[in-house]
Amino acid sequence: xxxxxxxxxxxxxxxxxxxxxxxxxxxxxxxxxxxxxxxxxxxxxxxxxxxxxxxxxxxxxxxxxxxxxxxxxxxxxxxxxxxxxxxxxxxxxxxxxxxxxxxxxxxxxxxxxxxxxxxxxxxxxxxxxxxxxxxxxxxxxxxxxxxxxxxxxxxxxxxxxxxxxxxxxxxxxxxxxxxxxxxxxxxxxxxxxxxxxxxxxxxxxxxxxxxxxxxxxxxxxxxxxxxxxxxxxxxxxxxxxxxxxxxxxxxxxxxxxxxxxxxxxxxxxxxxxxxxxxxxxxxxxxxxxxxxxxxxxxxxxxxxxxxxxxxxxxxxxxxxxxxxxxxxxxxxxxxxxxxxxxxxxxxxxxxxxxxxxxxxxxxxxxxxxxxxxxxxxxxxxxxxxxxxxxxxxxxxxxxxxxxxxxxxxxxxxxxxxxxxxxxxxxxxxxxxxxxxxxxxxxxxxxxxx
Length: 449
What we know:
This protein is an alpha/beta fold and about 450 residues long. Helices cover about 45% and strands about 10% of the residues. It has a seven-stranded mixed sheet with strand order 3-2-1-4-5-6-7, sandwiched between helices. Strands 10-9-8-11-12-13 form a six-stranded parallel sheet, sandwiched between helices.
Protein backbone atom coordinates (compact mmCIF):
# COMPACT_ATOMS: atom_id res chain seq x y z
CA UNK A 1 0.00 0.00 0.00
CA UNK A 2 1.47 3.36 -1.02
CA UNK A 3 1.59 6.37 1.33
CA UNK A 4 -1.43 8.16 -0.14
CA UNK A 5 -3.56 5.02 0.12
CA UNK A 6 -2.48 4.51 3.73
CA UNK A 7 -3.38 8.09 4.65
CA UNK A 8 -6.77 7.81 2.91
CA UNK A 9 -7.49 4.54 4.69
CA UNK A 10 -6.57 6.06 8.05
CA UNK A 11 -8.92 9.01 7.60
CA UNK A 12 -11.73 6.78 6.36
CA UNK A 13 -11.33 4.67 9.49
CA UNK A 14 -11.49 7.77 11.71
CA UNK A 15 -14.58 9.09 9.89
CA UNK A 16 -16.23 5.66 10.09
CA UNK A 17 -15.80 5.53 13.86
CA UNK A 18 -16.93 9.15 14.31
CA UNK A 19 -20.07 8.51 12.24
CA UNK A 20 -21.20 5.52 14.28
CA UNK A 21 -20.38 7.28 17.52
CA UNK A 22 -22.62 10.22 16.57
CA UNK A 23 -25.31 7.89 15.26
CA UNK A 24 -25.57 6.25 18.69
CA UNK A 25 -25.66 9.62 20.48
CA UNK A 26 -29.27 10.33 21.40
CA UNK A 27 -29.90 14.03 21.93
CA UNK A 28 -32.84 14.97 24.20
CA UNK A 29 -35.95 16.13 22.43
CA UNK A 30 -36.63 19.84 22.55
CA UNK A 31 -39.56 21.27 24.46
CA UNK A 32 -41.32 22.93 21.52
CA UNK A 33 -44.08 24.48 23.64
CA UNK A 34 -41.55 26.13 25.96
CA UNK A 35 -39.51 27.42 23.01
CA UNK A 36 -42.63 28.82 21.32
CA UNK A 37 -43.71 30.66 24.50
CA UNK A 38 -40.20 32.04 25.05
CA UNK A 39 -39.99 33.43 21.49
CA UNK A 40 -43.38 35.15 21.78
CA UNK A 41 -42.38 36.78 25.08
CA UNK A 42 -39.08 37.92 23.56
CA UNK A 43 -40.91 39.51 20.62
CA UNK A 44 -43.25 41.31 23.06
CA UNK A 45 -40.23 42.65 24.99
CA UNK A 46 -38.65 43.95 21.76
CA UNK A 47 -41.89 45.69 20.72
CA UNK A 48 -42.49 47.40 24.08
CA UNK A 49 -38.90 48.64 24.48
CA UNK A 50 -38.94 50.15 20.97
CA UNK A 51 -42.23 51.97 21.68
CA UNK A 52 -40.94 53.57 24.90
CA UNK A 53 -37.56 54.52 23.38
CA UNK A 54 -35.39 51.80 24.95
CA UNK A 55 -34.59 49.93 21.73
CA UNK A 56 -30.87 50.49 22.26
CA UNK A 57 -31.01 47.77 24.93
CA UNK A 58 -31.19 45.10 22.25
CA UNK A 59 -30.64 46.64 18.79
CA UNK A 60 -26.84 46.34 19.03
CA UNK A 61 -25.91 49.99 19.64
CA UNK A 62 -25.11 49.60 23.33
CA UNK A 63 -23.64 46.12 22.90
CA UNK A 64 -21.25 47.40 20.24
CA UNK A 65 -19.96 50.16 22.50
CA UNK A 66 -19.68 47.81 25.46
CA UNK A 67 -17.93 45.19 23.34
CA UNK A 68 -15.29 47.63 22.12
CA UNK A 69 -14.68 48.94 25.63
CA UNK A 70 -14.43 45.42 27.02
CA UNK A 71 -11.96 44.31 24.36
CA UNK A 72 -9.79 47.37 24.87
CA UNK A 73 -9.72 46.80 28.64
CA UNK A 74 -8.44 43.25 28.07
CA UNK A 75 -5.39 44.36 26.08
CA UNK A 76 -1.95 43.48 27.48
CA UNK A 77 0.84 45.96 28.21
CA UNK A 78 4.50 46.07 27.26
CA UNK A 79 7.42 47.17 29.46
CA UNK A 80 7.75 50.94 29.70
CA UNK A 81 11.30 50.63 28.37
CA UNK A 82 9.94 49.54 24.98
CA UNK A 83 9.53 52.31 22.43
CA UNK A 84 7.40 51.69 19.34
CA UNK A 85 8.44 53.91 16.47
CA UNK A 86 5.60 55.42 14.47
CA UNK A 87 7.12 57.15 11.43
CA UNK A 88 4.95 59.27 9.18
CA UNK A 89 5.46 56.85 6.29
CA UNK A 90 5.78 53.08 6.08
CA UNK A 91 4.73 51.77 9.50
CA UNK A 92 4.66 48.00 10.07
CA UNK A 93 1.15 47.24 11.36
CA UNK A 94 0.80 43.69 12.69
CA UNK A 95 -2.84 42.60 12.91
CA UNK A 96 -3.45 40.24 15.86
CA UNK A 97 -7.24 40.65 16.15
CA UNK A 98 -8.28 37.02 15.66
CA UNK A 99 -5.73 35.75 18.17
CA UNK A 100 -6.72 38.32 20.81
CA UNK A 101 -10.46 37.69 20.46
CA UNK A 102 -10.12 33.89 20.46
CA UNK A 103 -8.39 33.71 23.84
CA UNK A 104 -6.65 30.53 22.67
CA UNK A 105 -3.07 29.57 23.47
CA UNK A 106 -2.48 26.97 20.75
CA UNK A 107 0.33 26.96 18.18
CA UNK A 108 -0.79 29.75 15.85
CA UNK A 109 -1.93 32.01 18.67
CA UNK A 110 1.36 31.53 20.50
CA UNK A 111 3.28 32.44 17.34
CA UNK A 112 1.18 35.59 16.79
CA UNK A 113 1.60 36.80 20.38
CA UNK A 114 5.35 36.19 20.42
CA UNK A 115 5.91 38.05 17.14
CA UNK A 116 3.67 40.92 18.24
CA UNK A 117 5.54 41.29 21.54
CA UNK A 118 9.00 40.99 19.95
CA UNK A 119 8.14 43.46 17.18
CA UNK A 120 6.83 46.01 19.68
CA UNK A 121 9.70 45.43 22.12
CA UNK A 122 12.22 46.12 19.36
CA UNK A 123 10.30 49.24 18.33
CA UNK A 124 10.04 47.85 14.80
CA UNK A 125 6.30 47.21 14.51
CA UNK A 126 2.95 48.37 15.85
CA UNK A 127 0.62 45.45 16.69
CA UNK A 128 -3.03 46.39 16.14
CA UNK A 129 -6.62 45.20 16.62
CA UNK A 130 -9.45 45.77 14.13
CA UNK A 131 -12.78 46.21 15.89
CA UNK A 132 -15.97 47.55 14.33
CA UNK A 133 -14.06 48.70 11.22
CA UNK A 134 -11.53 50.67 13.27
CA UNK A 135 -7.91 50.01 14.23
CA UNK A 136 -6.66 50.17 17.82
CA UNK A 137 -3.19 49.50 19.30
CA UNK A 138 -2.92 45.94 20.67
CA UNK A 139 -0.81 47.01 23.65
CA UNK A 140 -2.68 49.53 25.77
CA UNK A 141 0.48 51.55 26.53
CA UNK A 142 2.12 51.25 23.10
CA UNK A 143 1.32 54.70 21.71
CA UNK A 144 -0.31 57.85 23.03
CA UNK A 145 -3.38 57.59 20.82
CA UNK A 146 -6.07 54.97 21.49
CA UNK A 147 -7.01 54.63 17.82
CA UNK A 148 -4.93 54.10 14.70
CA UNK A 149 -5.51 55.87 11.40
CA UNK A 150 -3.90 54.51 8.25
CA UNK A 151 -1.01 56.53 6.80
CA UNK A 152 0.65 56.55 3.37
CA UNK A 153 2.96 53.59 2.82
CA UNK A 154 1.74 51.53 5.79
CA UNK A 155 2.38 47.78 5.62
CA UNK A 156 -0.47 45.65 6.97
CA UNK A 157 0.92 42.28 8.10
CA UNK A 158 -1.99 39.87 8.56
CA UNK A 159 -0.58 37.30 10.96
CA UNK A 160 -3.94 35.72 11.72
CA UNK A 161 -6.60 37.29 9.51
CA UNK A 162 -10.03 35.98 10.56
CA UNK A 163 -12.41 34.22 8.18
CA UNK A 164 -15.46 35.69 9.93
CA UNK A 165 -14.95 39.37 9.05
CA UNK A 166 -13.94 39.25 5.40
CA UNK A 167 -15.88 42.31 4.25
CA UNK A 168 -14.25 44.54 6.86
CA UNK A 169 -10.76 43.22 6.14
CA UNK A 170 -11.21 43.51 2.39
CA UNK A 171 -12.11 47.17 2.89
CA UNK A 172 -9.07 47.68 5.12
CA UNK A 173 -6.76 46.07 2.57
CA UNK A 174 -8.13 48.31 -0.19
CA UNK A 175 -7.61 51.37 2.03
CA UNK A 176 -3.98 50.37 2.67
CA UNK A 177 -3.35 49.88 -1.03
CA UNK A 178 -5.02 53.20 -1.94
CA UNK A 179 -2.48 54.97 0.30
CA UNK A 180 0.45 53.30 -1.44
CA UNK A 181 0.87 50.61 1.19
CA UNK A 182 1.15 46.82 1.01
CA UNK A 183 -0.84 43.92 2.43
CA UNK A 184 1.12 40.82 3.46
CA UNK A 185 -0.61 37.65 4.65
CA UNK A 186 0.95 34.90 6.77
CA UNK A 187 0.25 31.28 5.76
CA UNK A 188 0.71 28.53 8.33
CA UNK A 189 -0.35 25.62 6.14
CA UNK A 190 -2.49 24.63 3.15
CA UNK A 191 -3.98 21.57 4.82
CA UNK A 192 -7.62 22.34 3.91
CA UNK A 193 -6.48 22.11 0.29
CA UNK A 194 -3.99 19.24 0.58
CA UNK A 195 -6.00 16.98 2.95
CA UNK A 196 -9.56 18.35 2.78
CA UNK A 197 -11.10 15.15 4.17
CA UNK A 198 -9.69 15.99 7.63
CA UNK A 199 -11.87 19.12 7.89
CA UNK A 200 -15.61 19.67 8.18
CA UNK A 201 -17.57 21.10 5.21
CA UNK A 202 -18.11 24.33 7.19
CA UNK A 203 -14.37 24.70 7.81
CA UNK A 204 -13.59 24.13 4.15
CA UNK A 205 -16.20 26.68 3.08
CA UNK A 206 -14.80 29.32 5.46
CA UNK A 207 -11.24 28.58 4.36
CA UNK A 208 -12.09 28.92 0.67
CA UNK A 209 -13.80 32.24 1.28
CA UNK A 210 -10.86 33.47 3.34
CA UNK A 211 -8.35 32.28 0.74
CA UNK A 212 -10.09 34.12 -2.10
CA UNK A 213 -10.74 37.34 -0.16
CA UNK A 214 -7.51 37.65 1.83
CA UNK A 215 -4.74 35.53 0.33
CA UNK A 216 -5.45 36.09 -3.36
CA UNK A 217 -5.90 39.83 -2.79
CA UNK A 218 -2.65 40.31 -0.82
CA UNK A 219 0.50 41.81 -2.30
CA UNK A 220 2.79 39.14 -0.82
CA UNK A 221 2.72 36.10 1.44
CA UNK A 222 5.04 34.85 4.18
CA UNK A 223 5.04 31.21 5.27
CA UNK A 224 6.35 29.45 8.36
CA UNK A 225 8.32 26.86 6.40
CA UNK A 226 9.94 26.39 3.01
CA UNK A 227 7.63 23.46 2.28
CA UNK A 228 4.48 25.55 2.77
CA UNK A 229 5.96 28.38 0.69
CA UNK A 230 6.52 26.10 -2.32
CA UNK A 231 3.05 24.54 -1.89
CA UNK A 232 1.47 27.99 -1.85
CA UNK A 233 3.41 29.22 -4.86
CA UNK A 234 2.45 26.14 -6.88
CA UNK A 235 -1.20 26.47 -5.88
CA UNK A 236 -1.42 30.18 -6.74
CA UNK A 237 0.15 29.73 -10.16
CA UNK A 238 -2.06 26.71 -10.86
CA UNK A 239 -5.37 28.50 -10.28
CA UNK A 240 -7.69 29.03 -13.30
CA UNK A 241 -6.78 32.69 -12.97
CA UNK A 242 -3.16 32.51 -11.73
CA UNK A 243 -2.19 34.80 -8.86
CA UNK A 244 1.27 36.31 -9.20
CA UNK A 245 2.76 37.39 -5.89
CA UNK A 246 6.11 37.00 -4.11
CA UNK A 247 6.23 34.33 -1.40
CA UNK A 248 8.79 33.98 1.37
CA UNK A 249 9.38 31.98 4.52
CA UNK A 250 10.95 32.50 7.93
CA UNK A 251 11.90 30.31 10.89
CA UNK A 252 9.81 30.26 14.05
CA UNK A 253 11.26 30.79 17.50
CA UNK A 254 11.14 28.19 20.24
CA UNK A 255 11.53 29.94 23.59
CA UNK A 256 8.72 30.65 26.06
CA UNK A 257 8.45 34.29 27.07
CA UNK A 258 5.98 33.93 29.94
CA UNK A 259 7.03 30.60 31.49
CA UNK A 260 8.72 32.26 34.51
CA UNK A 261 5.69 34.33 35.51
CA UNK A 262 2.87 31.76 35.19
CA UNK A 263 2.02 29.15 37.87
CA UNK A 264 2.49 25.41 37.48
CA UNK A 265 -0.56 23.44 38.63
CA UNK A 266 -0.40 20.58 41.09
CA UNK A 267 -1.41 17.99 38.47
CA UNK A 268 1.41 19.00 36.11
CA UNK A 269 3.94 19.17 38.96
CA UNK A 270 2.92 15.65 40.03
CA UNK A 271 3.44 14.30 36.51
CA UNK A 272 6.86 15.97 36.27
CA UNK A 273 7.92 14.42 39.61
CA UNK A 274 6.84 10.87 38.76
CA UNK A 275 9.58 8.27 39.03
CA UNK A 276 8.42 6.57 35.84
CA UNK A 277 9.43 8.01 32.46
CA UNK A 278 6.72 9.69 30.43
CA UNK A 279 6.25 10.50 26.76
CA UNK A 280 4.69 13.81 25.77
CA UNK A 281 2.48 14.80 22.82
CA UNK A 282 1.42 18.40 22.15
CA UNK A 283 -1.36 19.48 19.80
CA UNK A 284 -5.12 19.81 19.36
CA UNK A 285 -7.07 16.56 19.21
CA UNK A 286 -7.93 16.18 15.52
CA UNK A 287 -7.54 13.36 12.98
CA UNK A 288 -4.29 14.47 11.31
CA UNK A 289 -2.43 14.56 14.64
CA UNK A 290 -2.33 10.75 14.73
CA UNK A 291 -3.26 10.33 18.39
CA UNK A 292 -4.88 6.96 17.73
CA UNK A 293 -1.49 5.78 16.42
CA UNK A 294 0.30 7.07 19.54
CA UNK A 295 -2.24 5.42 21.85
CA UNK A 296 -1.93 2.12 19.98
CA UNK A 297 1.85 2.25 20.48
CA UNK A 298 1.56 3.08 24.18
CA UNK A 299 -0.94 0.25 24.69
CA UNK A 300 1.61 -2.11 23.14
CA UNK A 301 4.15 -0.98 25.76
CA UNK A 302 1.65 -1.42 28.59
CA UNK A 303 0.78 -4.94 27.38
CA UNK A 304 4.48 -5.76 27.63
CA UNK A 305 4.53 -4.57 31.24
CA UNK A 306 6.48 -1.36 30.51
CA UNK A 307 5.83 1.23 33.20
CA UNK A 308 5.72 4.45 31.17
CA UNK A 309 3.25 7.33 31.16
CA UNK A 310 1.72 9.16 28.19
CA UNK A 311 0.82 12.84 28.55
CA UNK A 312 -1.33 14.62 25.94
CA UNK A 313 -1.42 18.43 25.99
CA UNK A 314 -4.05 19.90 23.69
CA UNK A 315 -7.64 21.01 23.51
CA UNK A 316 -10.46 18.97 22.06
CA UNK A 317 -10.74 19.60 18.32
CA UNK A 318 -12.98 18.50 15.48
CA UNK A 319 -13.93 14.95 14.45
CA UNK A 320 -12.48 13.63 17.70
CA UNK A 321 -15.46 12.44 19.74
CA UNK A 322 -14.27 8.85 19.52
CA UNK A 323 -10.72 9.81 20.49
CA UNK A 324 -11.98 11.82 23.45
CA UNK A 325 -14.09 8.90 24.65
CA UNK A 326 -11.17 6.51 24.14
CA UNK A 327 -8.96 8.67 26.37
CA UNK A 328 -11.51 9.40 29.11
CA UNK A 329 -12.76 5.81 29.33
CA UNK A 330 -9.32 4.21 29.09
CA UNK A 331 -8.36 2.03 32.03
CA UNK A 332 -5.08 3.96 32.31
CA UNK A 333 -6.72 7.41 32.30
CA UNK A 334 -5.66 9.28 35.42
CA UNK A 335 -3.02 6.65 36.11
CA UNK A 336 -0.53 6.43 33.27
CA UNK A 337 -2.58 8.27 30.64
CA UNK A 338 -3.04 12.02 31.18
CA UNK A 339 -4.91 14.59 29.08
CA UNK A 340 -4.27 18.27 29.88
CA UNK A 341 -6.55 20.62 27.94
CA UNK A 342 -5.54 23.98 29.39
CA UNK A 343 -1.83 23.85 30.13
CA UNK A 344 -0.17 27.27 30.18
CA UNK A 345 3.33 28.07 28.89
CA UNK A 346 4.94 27.46 32.28
CA UNK A 347 3.32 24.04 32.55
CA UNK A 348 4.25 23.13 28.99
CA UNK A 349 7.84 24.23 29.66
CA UNK A 350 7.83 22.07 32.82
CA UNK A 351 6.65 19.03 30.85
CA UNK A 352 9.17 19.59 28.04
CA UNK A 353 11.91 19.76 30.67
CA UNK A 354 10.83 16.55 32.43
CA UNK A 355 9.59 14.21 29.69
CA UNK A 356 11.66 11.37 28.30
CA UNK A 357 10.79 12.23 24.70
CA UNK A 358 8.26 14.11 22.58
CA UNK A 359 6.01 11.91 20.42
CA UNK A 360 4.79 13.70 17.28
CA UNK A 361 2.65 11.33 15.20
CA UNK A 362 1.09 13.87 12.82
CA UNK A 363 0.69 12.93 9.18
CA UNK A 364 0.48 16.55 7.97
CA UNK A 365 1.76 19.84 9.42
CA UNK A 366 2.68 23.33 8.27
CA UNK A 367 5.75 23.41 10.52
CA UNK A 368 5.72 21.41 13.74
CA UNK A 369 6.32 23.99 16.47
CA UNK A 370 6.54 21.38 19.28
CA UNK A 371 9.76 20.06 17.69
CA UNK A 372 11.41 23.46 18.11
CA UNK A 373 9.96 23.99 21.57
CA UNK A 374 11.20 20.55 22.64
CA UNK A 375 14.65 21.27 21.24
CA UNK A 376 14.74 24.52 23.20
CA UNK A 377 14.41 22.44 26.38
CA UNK A 378 16.74 19.66 25.22
CA UNK A 379 13.95 17.10 24.78
CA UNK A 380 14.49 14.28 22.26
CA UNK A 381 11.81 13.90 19.56
CA UNK A 382 10.25 10.82 17.98
CA UNK A 383 8.27 11.98 14.94
CA UNK A 384 6.48 10.52 11.95
CA UNK A 385 8.62 10.47 8.85
CA UNK A 386 7.03 13.22 6.76
CA UNK A 387 8.82 15.90 4.66
CA UNK A 388 8.06 18.90 6.89
CA UNK A 389 9.51 17.17 9.95
CA UNK A 390 12.64 16.34 7.95
CA UNK A 391 12.90 20.05 7.08
CA UNK A 392 12.53 21.15 10.70
CA UNK A 393 14.33 18.35 12.55
CA UNK A 394 16.82 17.11 9.99
CA UNK A 395 19.03 14.29 11.28
CA UNK A 396 18.70 15.37 14.88
CA UNK A 397 15.44 13.59 15.72
CA UNK A 398 14.22 10.00 15.51
CA UNK A 399 11.65 9.03 12.87
CA UNK A 400 9.10 6.24 12.60
CA UNK A 401 7.05 5.19 9.59
CA UNK A 402 3.94 7.40 9.55
CA UNK A 403 0.72 5.63 10.66
CA UNK A 404 2.71 2.56 11.79
CA UNK A 405 2.00 2.10 15.52
CA UNK A 406 4.23 -0.99 15.71
CA UNK A 407 7.20 0.96 14.38
CA UNK A 408 6.44 3.77 16.85
CA UNK A 409 6.28 1.25 19.71
CA UNK A 410 9.74 -0.02 18.74
CA UNK A 411 11.09 3.55 18.76
CA UNK A 412 9.57 4.16 22.19
CA UNK A 413 11.15 1.00 23.59
CA UNK A 414 14.46 2.00 22.06
CA UNK A 415 14.22 5.44 23.68
CA UNK A 416 13.57 3.89 27.10
CA UNK A 417 16.87 1.99 26.91
CA UNK A 418 18.77 5.28 26.74
CA UNK A 419 19.22 8.25 29.02
CA UNK A 420 17.53 11.43 27.86
CA UNK A 421 19.93 13.17 25.46
CA UNK A 422 19.76 16.83 24.48
CA UNK A 423 18.99 17.68 20.87
CA UNK A 424 21.30 19.63 18.60
CA UNK A 425 18.70 21.56 16.60
CA UNK A 426 19.57 25.24 16.30
CA UNK A 427 16.61 27.12 17.78
CA UNK A 428 16.29 30.88 17.19
CA UNK A 429 14.70 33.12 19.80
CA UNK A 430 11.50 34.98 18.99
CA UNK A 431 13.36 38.26 18.59
CA UNK A 432 15.60 36.71 15.94
CA UNK A 433 12.60 35.08 14.23
CA UNK A 434 10.63 38.33 14.26
CA UNK A 435 13.58 40.34 12.96
CA UNK A 436 13.95 37.92 10.05
CA UNK A 437 10.25 38.24 9.22
CA UNK A 438 10.06 42.03 9.46
CA UNK A 439 13.27 42.56 7.47
CA UNK A 440 11.98 40.32 4.69
CA UNK A 441 8.64 42.15 4.51
CA UNK A 442 10.09 45.64 4.74
CA UNK A 443 12.77 45.04 2.10
CA UNK A 444 10.53 42.74 0.02
CA UNK A 445 13.31 40.16 -0.08
CA UNK A 446 11.03 37.17 -0.59
CA UNK A 447 12.69 33.90 -1.64
CA UNK A 448 10.12 33.07 -4.34
CA UNK A 449 9.41 35.98 -6.69
